[in-house]
Amino acid sequence: MKFYPLQFEPIFKERIWGGEKLKTVLNKPITTNNTGESWELSTVEGDVSVVVNGEWKGKSFTAIINEFPDEIVGTEVHARFGKQFPLLFKYLDASEDLSIQVHPNDALAKKRHNSFGKTEMWYVMQADNDARIIVGFKEDSDAAEYLENLKNKTLLSILDSVKVQLGDVFFLETGTVHAIGAGLVVAEIQQTSDITYRIYDFDRVDIHGNTRELHVDLAMDAINYNKVQTKKEYTKNVNESNEIVDCPYFTTNFIPLDGEISVSKSGESFTVYMCLGGSFEIENNNSKLHYIKGDTVLIPAAMKKFILNGKASILEIYIS
Length: 320
Description:
Elements: E1 11-19, H1 21-24, E2 35-41, E3 43-44, E4 47-48, H2 61-67, H3 69-73, H4 75-81, E5 87-94, E6 100-102, H5 106-113, E7 120-127, E8 132-137, H6 143-151, E9 159-163, E10 169-172, E11 178-180, E12 184-191, E13 197-200, H7 216-220, E14 242-246, E15 251-264, E16 271-284, E17 287-292, E18 296-299, E19 305-318
Antiparallel strand pairs: 1-2, 2-5, 3-4, 5-12, 6-13, 7-10, 7-12, 8-9, 8-11, 14-15, 15-19, 16-17, 16-18, 16-19
């Protein structure tokens, strides 16, 4: 069996806050003007990715993992997670502010939802002037202060709002109250989970005049009320894997590619590349596959040696 780089059919999600930048910025074939998310690689129930290239075209990602777990996800990842794929990869377009929300940790998510928690990171791919995000509290807080401000609709006064620009990275541990602000396109890497507790949605309504469900009670036990440091500084050495995040759930590196890099892997984990800009090729077994901005590709763990070639900005993600 010759293993090869896998690409998947994007799964598009319409959102009340979505727009058209997934098409205009990332070349995605969206068909609505309120598409908020492109799920690039998913095994979330009901939203399992399907291969679009090569011998396995048309096969679901879960079917391939079930058949070749060590070769696809890697020996160590398989030993740790079984045949569950532990990560979810997305691009998001926030035409409007997202709701203020929080995600539970592994223990709470397992107890309530039989799910992983949702540790995540964002890489800002495009930012309008004055675009901002909300990440955590301005100062250490507590449940009483939080509830008082939530009741009085002054929650924004105690939350930290940060201006962002292209290339900024934020790492959000579970329990961090957050919201992506209007005018941003973001690459998101997260644990495989679709558990979100929405705590404030700016009192907005959909086209039918309905508000979205809030999860204020569920969020109480999930929130970290302490001030947190979420922005990640990182180096940008050309033709090197510059570490941005290294946590128990994933490692993410930034690669400014200009020319050729020979890559060697151990076979313990899969690798995912997300193309942030420019274009590049992956050379393996005398074949070349080409990728452009907005593409996401999974390298099976069995592909231990290959070449990256081109001029591009790339995120490299694996589990260490």
